[in-house]
């Protein structure tokens, strides 16, 4: 196998590129308003939360619109990636059937393709933040790091649910429920400071809490994130990825038997 | 030449697990054993063979005989439970030609996708782009969305991309069963070229004629085991003989019937088949639509048969064979080869096949008709040499006697 190795890696990267390009292009070609939809859905949620928690029952969070939109945009990337990853094997059964198809790129494609959508909604987020809270500042340099950590974390979970769904078909129903739960266990429309000491202990087990908090620190407050917390999430994400990738590879021999 | 692809004692076992896939719920309720319990069966066992560069190996067998499993093991997308596959080069597949295509994207974009999925790098696809478009004969439409292409154009696009991978080991699964005759001819020519260039090919097909025609060797898989291996002609011959034997064995006792020409149809002799579907009221019609047993040379004939159903079956193929008085094959076709899908037969359907012109030499011919199970594993009803057809006209030599004209153009000075 040795002589193919370098080529295999290049090929896997090319497969990843065409899959992401296909996904993005088709999304925006099949619906004339493609890009608008990508942006409209977070804005709609923003309106709902704003109406509920800034107008009807004010929570008293400063810069509430920015606060909520950061949470929504970060969470949307995480959630859409995982919902796609969970069915990526049966959904792409014909690809899995191709000789030499690098199956391991499928969850990566889910995470990165939704990452592209995330980047497309980012300008809207920035405009809102600039108008409402703070202009761009040096800590923006932390943003790529935060995105990398988030991508690794999401991918680690993505490999896990993708492989598990092949053996246990009901994962595709369980994952959305867990994600719904995660939505409330992440301070998206509320703030960590409003949670009791005990509650915060529980929430701190959710790695997304540290990430959302870090994004907010950078974007809304214009200060550097808590690097300790981000590093902890990153280490956790790397270990998770190493374990779940192994699990995915071991399961991948059986993918075709199950789908 | 040394083999480039070798299967050594391949075996693959599956679990029979009923119709429901495993769920986490089942796992929680029944524990690991409960969720995993199931009867193990061998989809493939003890299969060994070698393919040398330039060789084409055909795999024949019924549905469920393990053909697709074998192809997946060879392609490396499934791991064998026993034995191993030794491949001296990357294995490529010509499996589903439209894999990965996206209908909203243009032909150009889809070539890039299919090419990369078939194993090329993006740069390699770009280098071969013009060649691919030329081969597909789609240059004027290449920037239109594939949604606007006809099914045939999509196949051409998929095939053109797939064959520009320049494989050294190629797996082909039923691809040649699709598309029109011109497309099939182009496919076969291209495959011949691959062979000439030293590509080793494994070819799966239901179409025995095609296996006989394009493969030099063949394997017959039966319930996951190798039943026969040898030259394609021998293996296909043995397979067909068993097909007839199986049909004969399944033939129920039945009353003797008469054809419209007064010939007896005797179950187990000139009428074999399991009988779920039966061909009833078979007629040969002349060009005016009148029942006949003879046509003038150059005229057409219509074969008409009514289908009688005693137990509905999902799908079937209709076949017709014409042989001459000496038993030599003159014509043979079936609804699958002609790309005609019979509907689910519920009884009372009338199947008509019109041969617009029968340019056979005057003489006596016999016609055999059959309705077959859709994996060709046995006949529902097969009437062997049951119908006589007389072609009248001035005697001539050879099997063919097309209507003809002579014109002598005067020499010009």
From TrEMBL, chain A:
It comes from the Bacteria. PROSITE patterns: ABC_TM2 (PS51012). GO terms for molecular function: ABC-type transporter activity. GO terms for cellular component: plasma membrane. The keyword Oxidoreductase does not apply. The keyword Membrane applies. It is found in: Cell inner membrane. It comes from Albidovulum denitrificans. Belongs to the ABC-2 integral membrane protein family. Residues 33-251 form the ABC transmembrane type-2 domain. One of its GO terms (biological process) is lipopolysaccharide transport. It is a multi-pass membrane protein. Pfam families: ABC2_membrane (PF01061). The chain crosses the membrane at residues 35-61, 104-131, 138-161, 173-190, 227-248. Its main location: membrane. This is Transport permease protein. Keywords: Cell inner membrane, Cell membrane, Membrane, Transmembrane, Transmembrane helix, Transport.
UniProtKB/TrEMBL annotation, chain B:
SMART domains: AAA. The keyword Electron transport does not apply. The keyword Transport applies. GO terms for molecular function: ABC-type transporter activity; ATP binding; ATP hydrolysis activity. PROSITE patterns: ABC_TRANSPORTER_2 (PS50893). Gene3D superfamilies: abc- transporter (atp binding component) like domain (2.70.50.60), P-loop containing nucleotide triphosphate hydrolases (3.40.50.300). Residues 5-248 form the ABC transporter domain. Keywords: ATP-binding, Nucleotide-binding, Transport. One of its GO terms (cellular component) is membrane. InterPro entries: AAA+_ATPase, ABC_transporter-like_ATP-bd, ABC_transpr_TagH-like, Bact_Polysacc_Export_ATP-bd, P-loop_NTPase, Wzt_C. Belongs to the ABC transporter superfamily. This is Lipopolysaccharide transport system ATP-binding protein. It comes from Albidovulum denitrificans.
């Amino acid at each position: 196998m040795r002589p193919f190795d370098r080529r295999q890696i290049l090929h896997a990267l090319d497969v990843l590129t065409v899959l992401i390009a296909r996904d993005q292009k088709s999304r925006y070609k099949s619906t004339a308003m493609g890009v608008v939809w990508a942006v409209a859905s977070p804005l709609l949620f923003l309106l709902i939360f704003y109406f509920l928690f800034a107008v009807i029952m004010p929570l008293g969070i400063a810069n509430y619109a920015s606060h909520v939109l950061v949470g929504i945009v970060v969470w949307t990337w995480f959630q859409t990636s995982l919902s796609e990853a969970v069915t990526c094997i049966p959904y792409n059964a014909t690809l899995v059937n191709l000789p030499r198809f690098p199956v391991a790129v499928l969850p990566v494609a889910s995470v990165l393709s939704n990452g592209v959508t995330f980047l497309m909604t980012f300008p809207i987020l920035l405009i809102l933040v600039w108008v409402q809270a703070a202009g761009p500042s040096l800590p923006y340099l932390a943003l790529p790091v935060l995105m990398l950590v988030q991508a690794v974390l999401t991918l680690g979970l993505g490999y896990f649910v993708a492989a598990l769904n092949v053996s246990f078909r009901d994962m595709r129903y369980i994952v959305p429920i867990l994600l719904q739960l995660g939505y409330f266990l992440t301070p998206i429309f509320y703030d960590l400071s409003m949670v009791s000491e005990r509650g915060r202990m529980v929430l701190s087990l959710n790695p997304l809490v540290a990430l959302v908090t870090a994004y907010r620190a950078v974007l809304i407050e214009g200060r550097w994130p808590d690097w300790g917390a981000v590093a902890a999430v990153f280490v956790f994400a790397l270990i998770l990825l190493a374990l779940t990738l192994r699990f995915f590879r071991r399961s991948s021999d059986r993918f075709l038997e199950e789908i | 030449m040394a083999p480039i692809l070798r299967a050594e004692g391949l075996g693959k076992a599956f679990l029979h697990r009923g119709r429901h896939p495993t769920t986490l719920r089942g796992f929680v309720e029944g524990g690991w054993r409960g969720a995993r319990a199931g009867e193990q069966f061998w989809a493939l066992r003890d299969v060994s063979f070698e393919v040398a560069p330039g060789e084409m190996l055909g795999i024949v067998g019924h549905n469920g005989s393990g053909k697709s499993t074998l192809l997946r093991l060879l392609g490396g997308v499934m791991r064998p439970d026993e034995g191993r596959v030794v491949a001296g080069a990357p294995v490529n597949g010509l499996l589903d030609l439209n894999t990965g295509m996206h209908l909203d994207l243009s032909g150009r974009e889809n070539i890039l996708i299919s090419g990369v999925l078939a194993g090329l790098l993006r740069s390699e696809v770009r280098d071969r782009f013009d060649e691919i478009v030329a081969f597909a004969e789609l240059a004027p439409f290449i920037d239109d969305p594939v949604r606007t292409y006809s099914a045939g154009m999509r196949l051409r696009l998929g095939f053109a991309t797939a064959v520009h991978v320049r494989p050294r080991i190629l797996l082909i699964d039923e691809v040649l069963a699709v598309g029109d005759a011109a497309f099939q001819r182009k496919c076969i020519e291209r495959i011949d070229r691959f062979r000439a260039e030293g590509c080793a090919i494994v070819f799966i097909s239901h179409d025995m004629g095609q296996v006989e025609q394009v493969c030099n060797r063949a394997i017959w898989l039966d319930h996951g085991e190798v039943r026969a291996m040898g030259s394609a002609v021998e293996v296909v011959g043995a397979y067909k003989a068993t097909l007839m034997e199986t049909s004969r064995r399944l033939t129920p006792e039945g009353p003797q019937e008469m054809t419209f020409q007064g010939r007896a149809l005797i179950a187990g002799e000139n009428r074999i088949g399991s009988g779920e579907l039966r061909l009833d009221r078979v007629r040969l019609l002349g060009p005016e639509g009148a029942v006949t047993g003879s046509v003038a040379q150059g005229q057409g004939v219509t074969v008409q048969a009514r289908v009688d159903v005693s137990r509905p079956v999902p799908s079937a193929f209709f076949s017709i064979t014409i042989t001459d008085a000496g038993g030599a094959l003159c014509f043979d076709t079936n609804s699958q080869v002609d790309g005609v899908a019979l509907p689910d037969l519920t009884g009372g359907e009338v199947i008509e096949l019109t041969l617009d012109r029968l340019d056979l030499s005057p003489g006596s011919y016999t016609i055999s008709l059959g309705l077959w199970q859709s994996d060709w594993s046995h006949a529902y009803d097969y009437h062997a040499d049951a119908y006589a057809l007389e072609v009248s006209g001035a005697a001539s030599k050879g099997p063919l006697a097309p209507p003809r004209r002579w014109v002598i153009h005067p020499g010009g000075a």
